[in-house]
Amino acid sequence: MGVLALSVRLWRRSSRVLRAGIVMALVLSAASAVMVRQNYFEWMFHPIAAAGFVSAGDAHLGDKEMVMAVRIGRETRAYPIVQMAYHHILNDTVGEVPIVVTY
């Protein structure tokens, strides 16, 4: 609000060149106010909506592909680093324990 009040005050006694600067400052202020209210992490990270799992024998991973492994009780899960690097976060349940996997 202060930027707008200052702009109105300066507008009345300014030249055409200064008015162009005032308009640019108003546009920059408005864009900054909009960006403050955005959650840009949602733009960067793509959470996995519904994870699908296969048995170790059915998994087709390369010999050098790395995984993150979690074992709780007798239940084990492995999460490929390639997928986690893109999605960054996954909610899962292992051995009836809810976990969050992140990379």
Question: What's the short version?
Answer:
The protein has 103 residues and is of the alpha+beta class. It has four helices and four strands. Helix content is 42%, strand content 23%.
How would you describe this protein?
This protein has helices spanning 2-12, 16-36, 41-44, 81-87; strands at residues 67-72, 75-80, 89-94, 97-102. Helix 1 packs antiparallel against helix 2 (16-36). The chain has 103 residues and is of the alpha+beta class. The mean pLDDT is 85. The strands form two sheets. The chain has a two-stranded antiparallel sheet with strand order 1-2. A two-stranded antiparallel sheet has the order 3-4. Strand 3 and strand 4 (97-102) form a beta hairpin.
Q: What is the beta-strand fraction?
A: 15-25%
Proportion in helices: 40-55%
Going by helix content, strand content and strand pairing, the class is alpha+beta
Shape field: rod-shaped
Let me know the number of strands.
4
**What is the N-to-C order of secondary-structure elements (H for helix, E for strand)?**
HHHEEHEE
How are the strands of the largest sheet arranged? 1-2
Rg calc:
26 Å
Contiguous helical run count: 4
Quote the distance from N terminus to C terminus.
41 Å
> Largest sheet at a glance?
2 strands, antiparallel
Poorly predicted spans = none
Taking all residues together, what is the mean pLDDT? 85
